[in-house]
Design goal:
It contains 15 helices and 14 strands. By secondary structure, the protein is an alpha/beta fold. Strands 5-4-3-6-9 form a five-stranded mixed sheet, with helices on both faces. It has a five-stranded mixed sheet with strand order 12-11-10-13-14, with helices on one face.
């Protein structure tokens, strides 16, 4: 996995945090192996490992076969005892989960909440649902190590706050991280939902792809780009905000952002809901559109394929510019029996540079609704288990 590559690439250890990366990656499993691998003095290794054991970051997992003398004790990251809270919040619904430190889901549930209700209402409901789910799992709050949340808007990487999200009135510059960290007393992280879906797909479904571009098409449209296992956010967090690229097919149509001519005005789930509702279909959400397509409704199928073709015009440019190794379609409209994807693929292959698509994997999401949750947990793991974060945590007084 990309995360393991990051862990192993931490260099020769000289701090407890750097040593932890070697155990995370499986590069070493015992104190003796650590001494041989690092060249550090036995006293230094003992001190660093004891600190990691004392903090609950490592645990003894049994004994290795002895080559003479006492069998050495195997040491492994104590991920089973750690707990991560994750959430993937969309425009009309969301999903939350409680996971262990390895990113394995312990419990998850849907969160019925519209994002346009505002941060106070949504976050209050989110915290309450997390606490209920945490209680049901029997996990203690003291086991929490971090929180990760995906949101349908651009996030400034420097401030950790949303920047004028079109679908989220009242959320601009709202202190979400501070709000969550105060209520659970652990580090909290937020990221654009498409970015986290892309991270989840890259780590769990496509770990051998060097770069991955995921396009989420639900109520709105967004994209996430993973390069070398890391999210590429752009200079101000706006990378992947393709739903508001201007396209000729949307000329004169007003988008949810207030502008006219945006891609989302013709190719998003909200756009298809509008078109199908005007034609007399009883649809209210992008999931309703997907269900109608699955039932084989000819009008829904035709409009969905056309929406995919229009998106393909924009994605062809992105693929020619970025040359990713994988292009993944996620979100509700990835559930349209490949009608949306086939429309996208048709135009993509016509308009992209041949070299850019020669070995390009084009597919729908393998993780589905779990992609955002998986990515949120991966983000927490990247942040709280890095060498620098572990060293900072060990330097703080015990709570």
């Amino acid at each position: 996995m990309a995360e393991d590559q990051e862990a192993e690439g931490a260099g020769l250890p000289n701090s407890a945090g750097a040593i932890f990366q070697l155990f995370r990656a499986g590069t070493v499993r015992t104190r003796g192996e650590l001494i041989s691998h690092s060249g550090l003095a036995r006293s230094t290794v003992t001190s660093r490992v004891d600190a990691l054991l004392g903090a609950g970051l490592l645990r003894e997992a049994g004994e290795n076969l002895s080559t003479g003398g006492r069998p050495p004790k195997t040491l492994v990251p104590n991920f089973e005892a750690m707990t991560i809270l994750a959430a993937d919040l969309g425009a009309t619904h969301g999903r939350i989960a409680v996971l262990d430190g390895a990113g394995r889901v312990i419990a998850d549930t849907a969160l019925e909440s519209r994002i346009d209700a505002g941060p106070a209402a949504v976050l209050t409901r989110l915290v309450a649902q997390w606490k209920r789910t945490l209680h049901k799992t029997g996990r203690q709050a003291s086991s929490l190590c971090g929180i990760g949340v995906g949101l349908p808007g651009p996030v400034n990487a420097e401030t950790g706050r949303l920047v004028q999200p079109p679908l989220m009135p009242g959320w601009h510059d709202y202190p979400i991280i501070e709000y969550l960290a105060k209520r659970f007393d652990v580090p909290a992280f937020i990221e654009n939902d498409a970015n986290l879906m892309a991270l989840g797909e890259a780590q769990l479904a496509h770990p051998n792809q060097p770069s991955l571009l995921l396009v989420k098409v639900a109520t709105g449209i967004g994209a996430g780009l993973i390069v070398g296992g890391q999210i590429y956010s752009g200079a101000a967090g706006g990378a992947g905000d393709i739903g508001h690229v201007k396209v000729p097919a949307a000329a004169g149509l007003r988008c949810s952002c207030g502008a006219e001519g945006c891609l989302a005005a013709v190719s998003s789930g909200a756009a298809l809901v509008r078109q199908l509702a005007a034609a007399g279909h009883g649809v209210q959400s992008s999931r309703d559109v997907a269900r109608l397509v699955q039932l084989g409704d000819p009008e829904a199928v035709a409009l969905t394929r056309k929406a995919g073709q229009t998106l393909g015009e924009v994605i062809a440019t992105a693929v020619s510019l970025l040359n990713p190794s994988a292009l993944i379609l996620g979100g509700d409209l990835s559930l349209t029996d490949d009608h949306y994807l086939s429309g996208l693929r048709e135009v993509l292959y016509q308009r992209s540079q041949p070299l850019a698509i020669r070995n390009l994997l084009v597919a729908t999401s393998q993780l589905g609704d779990e992609a955002g949750i998986t990515g949120a947990a991966a983000l927490v793991r990247q942040q709280v288990f890095s060498a620098a974060a572990v060293d900072r945590a060990l330097s703080r007084p015990s709570r």
